[in-house]
Structures are given as structure tokens and as C-alpha cells.
Amino acid sequence: MNIDKLKAEVEAYREKLKGKSGEVCIFSETGPVGMSLIDAIVTVLEAQQQQINDIEKKVEASHR
User: Which terminus of the chain has a smaller tally of CB atoms within 10 A, N or C?
Assistant: First the structure.
């Protein structure tokens, strides 16, 4: 998953919440965020961390 797909998922989630007008929506201290959205964020962060690690390896290799 990339950042554009994550943004689309967040927007879809936001629209879903807006569509619940008049229905019960459960909120906690942290808001109405579900685990599927959190999992998507974690996936993007893991991919970005892997990209950073790859870049760092390339930089280290070029300095040898």
C-alpha cells in the first residue's frame, strides 16, 4: 500500500462516517478510528521504513 491508497481509504472511511447520519456511531477517547484504518497506516509506515533502510544501505555501500 502506498500513501495515495491510504489517503483514499481514509477518505472512504470519513464518507462512511458521514453516511451514518442518525445512526449510532461508537467513539472512544481516540475517536472513531477502526483497526482496519490503523492496519493500513502501519502497512504504509512499514513500506516507508523498508525504503529508508534500502536507501541507507545504498549510501553506505557507495561510501566504501
Answer: C
